[in-house]
Design goal:
Layout: H1 3-43, H2 54-67, H3 74-92, E1 96-100, H4 106-115, E2 120-124, H5 127-135, E3 141-148, E4 152-153, H6 155-163, E5 167-175, E6 179-182, E7 193-197, H7 198-203, H8 205-211, E8 216-220, H9 223-232, E9 236-240, H10 242-248, E10 251-254, E11 264-271, E12 281-289, H11 295-305, E13 310-317, E14 325-332, H12 338-350, E15 351-361
Helix pairs in contact: 1-3, 2-3, 9-10, 11-12
This protein binds prephenic acid (PRE).
Length: 365
Amino acid sequence: MSDESKALGEIRDRIDSIDQQIQTLINQRAQCAKDVADVKLRAKKSDDAIFYRPEREAQVLRRVMERNQGPLGDEEMARLFREVMSACLALEKPMHIAYLGPQGTFTQAAALKHFGHSVISVPQVAIDEVFRDVEAGESHYGVVPVENSTEGMINHTLDMFVSSPLRICGEVKLRIHHHLLAGSDTDLSKIEKIYSHQQSLAQCRRWLDANWKKVERVAVSSNAEAARRVKAEPNSAAIAGDMAAELYGLVNIAKNIEDQPDNTTRFLIVGREDVPASGDDKTSILVSMKNCPGALYHLLEPFHRHGISLTRIETRPSTSDTWAYVFYIDFEGHYTDKNVQEVIEEISKEAVEIKHLGSYPVGVL
Ligand SMILES: O=C(O)C(=O)C[C@]1(C(=O)O)C=C[C@@H](O)C=C1
């Protein structure tokens, strides 16, 4: 036996022994999750028991990252734990997660990034349908896009919160990489149409102008739908992400063609319950103000005075007469924090209506 194969053999024996220990420990952890489920079931009627605990998951993942010593990177390690926790939760209760489909969309990628791969992801045809599915109790949680760093807010999602009883219980950010995809036997010189979602066409506008100026751009309902069409239609190409490329077996003609290299989309997790504080949280509220001078000042001044940082403020046109202005505000802190309660109380005196959309852990991964 050569020195090299002897050294390899020894290291692999060590790996085998470590794997065995990891496996035993993961199963001990899974047994704990089952015990947790029993406690939750005993405390509540089985229909009401809440198995998914976003605040606890955020705390576990933050701790994993804090104590990580490498050589694996913090995010890599957290992703491994993400999957372990996902499998443990599935043992407690398999989670149904509605998302803006079809299969292969960035929203599905966001859902799997947030919940891990042991959930059952259920595609819906529109943002309203994701809300409806969770409201009706068909799915436990839903995932919808809310803002993109290049294209701004997704107004349809914001507008849903005016009437929906759902709560925001999490957020997840995803780096969006677009690729130009086509069937493996496509002759590139014959491409006549490029399909994609309108937002993705906009996010790649400069690249398209520089490289495919004369080719028609066709907006369809999603990137995954674009990939599906291209699979069946010769002389066409799609702009979509890795998941859609893999799902429809398309070839990558040009990678990462988004105009902004840090193109990121933020998604919200919606559910039916409030989430307790995790120690690093955000709150979203919707406030309608009377159309009077200084309305915005009266709304924002209390946040400044109580030392609360706003992370976003967005205005939408009112859908009813009473709602002259509707502001969507995200800020740091949890609804149960004393300073947050004080601000809410002060704003309530000026506002026509305030709706708490949810307090949730700041996205960890
Ligand atoms: O701590 C709990 O409540 C659990 O159910 C355990 C656990 C975990 O595996 O750590 C699993 C699912 C929850 O979403 C949070 C954490």
